Amino acid sequence: MRVTIGILFSVLLMINLSAGTHILRLLSEYSLTTTYGIRTEQLPRFNEYDFIIVGAGPGGSTVANRLSENQNWRILLLEAGEPEGILQQIPSFSSINSKYDWQYKYEPQDKACLGMKDRTCPCPKGKSLGGTTTINGMVYARGHKLDFDIWAQQGNYGWSYEEILPYFRKSERVNLREPVDEPYRGRDGYLHVQNSPWSTPVKTAFLDSGKELGYDVVDYNGRQQIGFSDSQLTMVNGTRCSASKAYLRIRRLNLDIVTEATVSRVLIDDNNHAYGVEFIKNNKTYRINAGKEVILSAGTINTPQLLMLSGIGPKDHLDELGIKVVKDARVGYNLCDHVAFIGLTFLVNQSVEFLANARTPEAALQYAINGTGRHSGTLPSAVAFARTKHAVDARPDIELILRAGAFNMDGDEGRSRGISQEVYDKVWKPIEGQVTWAIWLSPQLARSKGRITLRSTNIADHPIINANLLDDPSDVEVLVEGIKFALNISQSQTFQRYGSRLHDTKIPGCEALEFNSDDYWRCAIRSVTATFNHEMGTAKMGPATDPAAVVDPELRVHGIRGLRVIDASIMPEIPVGHLSATTYMIAEKAADMIKRSWQN
């Protein structure tokens, strides 16, 4: 369901335009010179800065804030997108496929996305101040203790759970309904983490079903991750709390932020020292020097693209494109994501309003005045983490996300996810107008790995993203078990009070298989595939003895002085959860490492 500009203007005409209304508070934070208190420059004010940061997502925004705490350092933050807009602050609004989205697409898949248009899954990534945190589902989920202990065991000193937990706590300002595992949570950070003000009967039923099945309602960012939970979201007072809103609403004369500036390469001298960047703005090319370091925080897709365009990458691939090789490195490999099955739909046979209608003037009015109601929430309204029979250790290997409404209630959502018209018309169109709910599932410890390569030497050409989704059959088998778990939830006494039943129209391409059999679900999984857009790993962290490592445990690019990577691309293995939370932690820790390095 989408909020439109027309709705907002209609609401403003309907209400008393007093300074206390929620929408007017948002408008008051937006002007031509600043956006939510963030001042930007048309161009860099100086020819040289101490640190140049590329990308203003959860990595770059955080590092820019922390490094600018030192008033003796000049910091330049370059962002390819624009400042985020007013509509991005409304949780129910989607900016996917807009100017705030890079609008990447995976290459056509052989084993996944078969029911998507052109066998291609979209890959939305944020292109604005705040990066992907301006367009994502806002779920804040850190990962399991073992995830980080395994990173440390691989030779990444300083990255055990005990060592990184203080940085999770440092980043967040938590304000949640119970339960809250206080020793693991932070109250004084920049990033607001809250529950949605909006709730529905389906969320209550989901949590009660978990209890019925023997699970606790937990704080999944505390000591116990396995269980059912209300979604913890990066939001504040009914609005999105993006990375830029969290970390860049600071007025520091030593921090310059330049938007709509696309960095095309890192400048590296003959001694393998990164001394600046080249960027393009308004069709003009500029060069700016970095006295201390260049920091790439452009994300899992753009960071490897920039590294390779700068001569850091696989020699054979760079040679093919005629790029001078500065450092032969495994850049672009190890791509991993939380793949998902999004085809489970459930109907109810009672006239219960599981989902408030977002298209009504009343819903818009409620949000405009108080910042509450349907528009203050996101469709991922509750989550569960569990272990299937395929789990290999204490970590949950499946995540279930409750969706208050399926694609039949919002065809635009299905189209934005890439579902083909044939599949939509067969499965969801016949039940348009009926009340539904859905569960999306994702294997948390995905084994399928892909790769990013350059399409050309032009920064404007999107790189080739071969995600290789569901290549490892174990990812499919975890999803099959996850579906069985989801069906158990739907068949609980709690949901049966609403007459909940599985929508049993077969997915095109799977008609010959017995519905609800394992083989049917294997086919359905490979057809109605999506990802949670948690791409990671393409500039892997590891010690010098690891031939696949691109950066060392202090995130310095191996073999290149003055160049670090601080974003999700450094993750050596995919953690449980949602990766923006972990990226904030990485950036907080990296900022401290940089400070120690230069203070010494």
From TrEMBL:
SUPFAM superfamilies: FAD-linked reductases, C-terminal domain, FAD/NAD(P)-binding domain
Binding site for FAD: T132, N136, G137, M138, V139, V263
Keyword Calcium: no
Cofactor: FAD
One of the Pfam families matching this protein, by short name: GMC_oxred_C
Keyword Transmembrane annotated: no
Record GO terms (molecular function): flavin adenine dinucleotide binding; oxidoreductase activity, acting on CH-OH group of donors
Residue ranges of every copy of the Glucose-methanol-choline oxidoreductase N-terminal domain listed in the record: 126-149, 299-313
Superkingdom to which the source organism belongs: Eukaryota
Keyword vocabulary terms for this entry: FAD, Flavoprotein, Signal
The protein's name: Glucose dehydrogenase [FAD, quinone]
Gene this chain is encoded by: LOC105274128
